[in-house]
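Next up, sample data.

:::
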Amino acid sequence: MIDPIQKKSLFDFPHPLGIIAGRGVYPILVAEAAKKAGVEKIYSVCFVSETDQKMESLSTTVEWIRVGQLSKMLQFFKKNEVKRAIMAGGVAPSHLFELRPDLKTLLLLAKLKERNAHSLFGAIAEELEKIGVLLLKATTFLEDQLVPSGHFGGPQIKKRFWGDVEFGFRIAKEIARLDIGQSVVVKNGTVLSVEAFEGTDETMKRGGELGKGGAMLVKVSKPDQDFRFDVPVIGLKTIDAALRYGIGVIVCESEKTLVLEKGKVIEMADQSKISLVGFP
């Protein structure tokens, strides 16, 4: 495995940056932040029906592929002499089941004992390393968007809620350890919903409806979280879902959760009276 390199020295030489761009605003924020940091050439691998077209204008060159076309991705990075890459943004779960793998992907899948996000993306990272591409942490260039410790948005929570913060954090860490999910919704010492494959928004919907207002979302990292391709994230959609489903407090693991468009998220939380808390 290629040894990690400190961010400070990553781009003090003229190597281009590769971005494996999934859906949503995440890859756009990475590209914009990389440009601000002085990266001159960005080569983006984008997914048909997934990635925002804006990546075209932020990239030197874009290669559009379908989910499962691993060979095309590797050839693109190799041709453009990409040595550092970032994986940003997910792929719709439904598209993972519509996978049309090329031969390279089929061979990779055949070697895996378990086909979950950790094993699949870990195997892709190994394939990238074989052609000399180091997969960086997905938070690279966005370190200022990580959740701080303590209250960071919306109203201060009342003392009586801290029991639920600690309770929810303990339960969320346990389901994360079991690789079930990374979020729970709790209220008054009761677990209302647990995240699984359906994602955080659906977990909030089920828990919020059961809680009938005033419920709390707690989101954590896994004990073996690989931050190269699997980062806990909240954004404007999270606040919108909390508002719709009666979630009054959002607790995230500090320094390990990314807040996409952090300024806008805090502003929306302030306006919506939804408390944001980072828990260490």
